[in-house]
Amino acid sequence: MLPMFESLLSETFLNNTLLDYLTALIIVLVGLIVLKVLKTFLAARLKRIAGDRSKNIFEVLLPRVLKNVMPLLSFGIVYAGVTYLTINPSVQRAIDVLGIAILTFFGIRFLVSLVDYLLEKFWLQKDENEQKENTVRAITPVIRFVVWGLGLVFLLDNLGFKISTVIAGLGIGGIAVALAAQAVLGDLFSYFSILFDRPFKIGDFLIVGDHLGAVEHIGIKTTRLRSLSGEQLIFSNTDLTSSRVRNFKRMERRRVAFKIGVIYQTSQEKLEEIPGMIKAIIQGIEMAEFDRAHFAAFGDFSLNFEIVYYVLSSDYNIYMDIQQRINLEIGKAFKQHNIEFAYPTQTLLFQNATAKSNGYQLETEKTVE
Q1: Exposure check for the chain: N or C terminus, fewer CB within 10 A?
Q2: 315-350 residues labelled b (16+ CB within 10 A) or e (exposed)
Q3: Residue 340 DSSP label
């Protein structure tokens, strides 16, 4: 019985004995069983840590390993079993090509998943906002295209294609395209500069040269603003990155300086009281921070005071509400203390020519308003 069994195992089919086929099958089965046990263990581990946000690097890589590396290992086990056998060179070549293609595919997919994780973990979670989400959505396809392109080059190079010649041809063609589309490429690079540097975002109020408005849309070639009068302003991205842009949305507080004037007939005591009166008014207003108030200058028809304060908000409407309240309170306080605001006046001097010829000089004053 035993010699007959040994004789059966030594029978040759397609250049391999039955024992070789059984050995290859055992290699594949044992490998797949071990891989299945490992996958079950890792899946249980992943389920336990699913609700834990403080994950180490192993726990971050684990779900990506299960999705991308496990299929690759399964193919590797089958490949090891098949290559144990003596097979036709053309079949062996086809299996090698298939192996390289599968390795490239799952390797690139694993790398892309890591890039997506890094963008989500170290960029979005630090400061979640719509602009960042738009940025990630914009650059992710570009990153994937580059990674898959490099993977394709790697695959073709391993398959024996002359990649250097193709790359040289693409380089010459790329230079020609770049020269023809220089303006478009400039706007594209400016778009990525805006996305990464983030000098402004949608909703910010900008002043660009003589134009001003709120950002409505940031596109690949142009950025659109909505002006205060209602029309849409369209700027190329290159114009914005090469211009001095004033972003009022980023203003933490607004410095306000204004002047008031009182008549020259105001007494010395009241002049000394005015800075303190204005200080008390501003300090009593919410979201207003007093800085200074001084008797600044002697004007042509008024005694001028300069006042400086800060509005603790970038909102223009809040600034105007505060300025309006300050003006009303100053007017009320001056009325209570009988202090008069100055307005343009002119004093004319008239001389009596007859009196002057007799050695006398008579002067009369007349104020013209």
Answers
A1: N
A2: eeebbeebbebbeebbeebbeeeebeebeeeeeeee
A3: P
